[in-house]
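User: Teach me something about this protein's shape.
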Amino acid sequence: MLPEEVWGLPLHPLVIHAVVVLVPLTAVGAVFVALRPRFTKRFGVIVVIGAILSAVSAFLAKESGEALARTRPVSGEHVMAGDVVPLPLVGFAVLLIVFWLFDRGVPGNRARPLWLKLLAVVVVVAAVACTYLVVIAGHTGALSVWS
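Assistant: First, the predicted structure itself:
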């Protein structure tokens, strides 16, 4: 059970900042790692950690948002958008971990095998999709607060 407030402030607006920052940064990192093999060796572990933290922060945002919704009115559209975000981020993290583990095993002087190149394309698509989901959830949340 999460606390509903931290220092008198609702937890949800604090936690969502982690999601809003981590997901796009991780997505950009994932695109670089997917498109440039040399980035996997140098930044792969950082991007994987970012993906894991993104998924965890999305679950915390969802839980804290549900707690906040019990005390304040919130748009149903935002609730639906927020409910969707955590699971795709878990899938993205798993996908990125699998890609990273296999890609770092390819010697620097060899090309990626075709299946790994296709997986890289899936990583890029997943990065864009997860960022889109976070933007939609954030936008609907902002509309419900500021409208």
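Now, about its shape. The radius of gyration is 17 Å. DSSP finds five helices and two strands in the chain. If you'd like, I can walk through any region in more detail.
User: That's plenty for now, thanks!
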